Each structure stands twice: as C-alpha cells, then as structure tokens.
C-alpha cells in the first residue's frame, strides 16, 4: 500500500456552520479541540442544521486568541464575536438525534443575532464540561464520549475518494461538502474503508462505522444552494444497505497533537464494504 499522510485537518466549532482548516490540532476525549462544542437549538431544544436550514453554510466561524467570531461569507460586516468561555444561566436540555444531553446558553445577545439571521427563535449553547454524551453502545469500544457531532468524535476521508467522485461529476465539488476532520492522501479511492486500527502520531484510532450521507452534502458551502448532486451520482456506486456511504467514523484512545503531514500507520485492516 502507498504511504498515507494527513493532508488536512478541519474543525467545526459550531455544529453545521463553516469549518476551520488547521495545520495542527489537539485531540481530546470528545474529539479535536473546539470541534462541535457549540450548537444552535430551537425552542424545543432540538439541534438545527443545514439539512433544513442551508443558509447556515454562509456563516463562517473563526477562532482568534480567546474568542470565536461568526461572519457572513457574503457580507463581512455582518458578524458577531464572543469569548470561548462565555456562557450564562443553567443547563439547557439539548437533543442531538436520539441523544439527550445538555448545554449552556452563550449569551442572550448572541442567540438574538442568530435568531434574527434565521428569522426564528434559536439559542446558541455550549456543551457543558460535565455533559456526558456517550457514543452508540453498538459501536463504542471503551465507553467513548462525543461532542455535539452527529455521533462520533472524528471522521476521515481519503482525497482519492473525492477525486474519484469528481471524475464522475459534471461540476467538481469541494471536500467541505463532506465535513471531515481528517483528509488523507495516498492509496486507492476509499482506501479508508479498509482501515480497522491505525495511529496518527501517538494517538490510536479505530474506524468503527462507515459514514452514511444525507442531503447536507447537496448544499454548496459557498452559496447555500442545494442540488441533486453529489447524492445522485454517489447512489450509483456507493450505496450499501439503502444508505450512501462516504468516509469512516472514528473512535480514538489517548490525546495528543495531530499535525498535517503526519503518516498514518495502519495496524490492522478489515474487509472493505461491498458496494
């Protein structure tokens, strides 16, 4: 097998908003530092995402020193900032799919800014340090926990998988449609399907579940325009058990610094999914 190297690292501090590309990051118990530690919720405490509100893709998050800034991609004057540690009030129930966890509202003025943008009442909440949201027991290895991510601490995708997809599309798309944490170079298309256990630096990872994709990947992250692609094309060659698979969900053991350029050392392989 070709050598496999980490070519990109991404975090998405506020779930379903624009991600941040990093040269290095620290992986913690819930995943990469600051990844999906904040989420927007509606009046019932249910998380909201680009699946229903594609305009969220136009809000770009950046971290500078001890603050987060959210800026509209098409209007840089439309922005708001708040401290990473900022929070007010007590715990608020937060529902992520079938999981019930909790968070703390950042600030009323911050929630109001998002409410005005979405034209509906929402709150921006930060995951409580004491919140314990467990990974699905069916796939957990050592009672792992997760942030406000859909279900797993990290997601990995090979650049060759996207290159292969783009060779089939009339209009190529960017990797940001798939919102990975790690992008790797080397190997054949979907080489990550064969990973079982591997290391990046001093951190051990296990690929525990293929990532089933939804309509979110049909949202252009630069324009918020939805289309049939790439789900339409992926359905012709990446369908498995009536789901479209692209990328691998990961669990990890330990903590440490992950840097772009690090080599993946594959310890064990599994049989690739049959598509």
From TrEMBL:
Pfam families listed in its UniProt record: MOSC, MOSC_N
GO MF annotations, alphabetized: catalytic activity; molybdenum ion binding; pyridoxal phosphate binding
State the superkingdom: Bacteria
Q: Ranges for the MOSC domain? A: 128-267
**InterPro entries (alphabetical):** MoCF_Sase_C, MOCOS_middle, Pyrv_Knase-like_insert_dom_sf
This chain belongs to the protein called MOSC domain-containing protein
> What is the scientific name of the source organism?
Pedobacter jejuensis
């Amino acid at each position: 097998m070709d050598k496999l190297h980490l070519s990109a690292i991404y975090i998405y501090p506020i779930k379903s908003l624009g991600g941040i590309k990093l040269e290095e990051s620290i992986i913690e118990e819930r995943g990469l530092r600051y990844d999906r530690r904040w989420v927007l919720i509606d009046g019932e405490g249910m998380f909201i995402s680009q699946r229903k509100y594609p305009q969220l893709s136009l809000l770009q998050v950046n971290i500078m020193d001890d603050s987060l800034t959210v800026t509209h991609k098409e209007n840089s004057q439309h922005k708001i900032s708040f401290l990473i540690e900022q929070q007010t009030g007590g715990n608020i129930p937060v529902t992520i799919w079938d999981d019930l966890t909790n968070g703390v509202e950042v600030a009323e003025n911050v929630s109001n800014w998002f409410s005005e943008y979405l034209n509906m009442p929402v709150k921006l909440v930060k995951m409580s340090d004491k919140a314990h949201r467990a990974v699905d027991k069916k796939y957990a290895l050592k009672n792992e926990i997760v942030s406000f991510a859909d279900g797993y601490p990290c997601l990995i995708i090979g650049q060759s998988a996207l290159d292969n997809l783009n060779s089939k599309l009339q209009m190529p798309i960017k990797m940001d449609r798939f919102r990975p944490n790690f992008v790797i170079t080397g190997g054949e298309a979907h080489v990550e399907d064969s990973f079982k256990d591997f290391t990046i630096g001093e951190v051990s990872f296990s690929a525990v579940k293929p990532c089933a994709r939804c309509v979110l990947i049909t949202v252009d992250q630069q324009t918020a325009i939805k289309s049939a692609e790439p789900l339409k094309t992926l359905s012709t060659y990446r369908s498995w058990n009536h789901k479209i698979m692209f990328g691998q969900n990961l669990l990890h053991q330990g903590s440490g610094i992950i840097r772009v350029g690090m080599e993946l050392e594959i310890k064990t392989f599994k049989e690739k999914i049959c598509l």
